[in-house]
Amino acid sequence: MQAITVLPMQAGSARLDKVDEPPLQDGDLLVQTLAVGICGTDLEISQGEYGWAPPGRDRLVLGHESLGRVLEAPTGSDLQPGDLVVGIVRRPDPEPCASCAAGEWDMCRNGRYTEHGIKQLDGFMRERYRIDPSFAVKVDPALEQTGVLLEPTSVVAKAWDHIERIAARAVWRPRVVLVTGAGPIGLLAALLGVQRGLEVHVLDRVTAGPKPALVADLGAAYHTGTVADAVGHADIILECTGVGELVLDAMDKASPDGIVCLTGVSSPGRTIAIDANALNRELVLENELVFGTVNANRRHYQAAATALAAADPSWLERLITRRVPLGRWSDALQRRPDDVKAVIDLTG
Ligand code: BGC
User: Fold this and answer.
1) What dihedral angle (degrees, nearest 10) is formed by the CA atoms of 290, 296, 297, 301?
2) How far apart are CA 252 and CA 296, in angstroms?
3) Residue 348: band (very low, low, confident or very high) from pLDDT cuts 50, 70, 90
4) Helix-, strand-, coil-residue percentages of the chain, each rounded to 5
5) Ligand 1, residues 47, 52, 66, 89: which to mutate, most atoms within 8 A of Cβ?
């Protein structure tokens, strides 16, 4: 069958390959892949900056944002042939650490977790895969093709879960939210903020393309320029760009007792001069909390499914700005100025 594979840490190595049918030992659920979303992590892997092949192999099947249809399900499982499913990206470490043992592999303590399409486990950019049913999440058929947004939504569902747990430290309730970056993660983070009844501001660089209207149609405010231009102070800041300067600006704009949630994976190697003492002084004197978050566990996939089901389906469809057939897969790995989410369609 066909698959997109890469040689991790080797730029430009991605290719449309022929790979074996998934082995039975991968799991009792056989899934036909319908679509796979592309995110910054896939671009980094294809540019040779990230990723690990499965043990004993050179190449890794790419793809971790999936939507598939069940072809074969074991008897007694909640899943039936024909159901739409999304594969959970991360697997617990073999030890397992305290977090992985409790099903919180997103909080793995020893780094020995594996991830489909990223770290030592083949991804979903192949026509079929097998998986243990406990690592597949059923998708509401009403979501149709937008079910491919479940994985990135799970990442922001985790971010919100942790923000809310942190916010519980104070007696007051946050009201104003700033999201930096109107990419898929930023827009989905804004969606979940609006669903919580909060006042949401989104900051991005672009003035044209689909992003301003996507933000406005959520009922949030779209801003360009600096963090200071966007909002005076925000109770919660979701930083979704990973751009160092913005991260620091965001910290500066958090309100007293404010929470800054970092979701963007930056590329290291560039130095910015900062007054570390002034920053520390502000964090301390204002009880500010800056934290990072990555990945998601099953609870977050379920929360994401609920959030997507409550969203306007046409708004979700507009997030998917490009659908590329498998035969033109390499187009999907080229970022275009008006892209929000590019998706590879494995059925075409
Ligand atoms: C994925 C996460 C993953 C992270 C780090 C992200 O793109 O959505 O599931 O944990 O990359 O590998």
Assistant:
1) 120
2) 28
3) confident
4) 35, 25, 40
5) 89
- Contact 155 CB / ligand 1 (< 6 Å): yes
pLDDT of residue 279: 94
- Number of Cβ atoms within 10 Å of the Cβ of 257: 16
Task: Report the nearest-CA residue for atom 7 of ligand 1.
Answer: 41
Residues 48/90, Cβ–Cβ less than 8 Å: no
Sole residue written with tokens 């249809």: 69
Instruction: Give residue-wise pLDDT tens across range 142-151.
Output: 999 999 999 9
pLDDT tens profile 16-36: 999 999 999 999 999 999 999
Q: Tokens for 189?
A: 């983070």
**CB neighbour list of residue 329: distance below 8 Å, 6 or more residues apart:** 4, 14, 16, 125, 344
Ligand 1 centroid–CA 134 distance in Å is: 19
Ligand 1 near 214 CB (within 6 A) = no
Q: Above pLDDT 70, what percent of the chain?
A: 100
CA torsion angle for 115, 119, 124, 128 (degrees, to 10)?
-100
Among 108, 143, 132, 120, residue whose Cα is nearest residue 35: 143
Specify the residue with its C-alpha closest to ligand 1, atom 4.
295
Answer yes or no: is the C-beta of 45 below 6 A from any ligand 1 atom: no
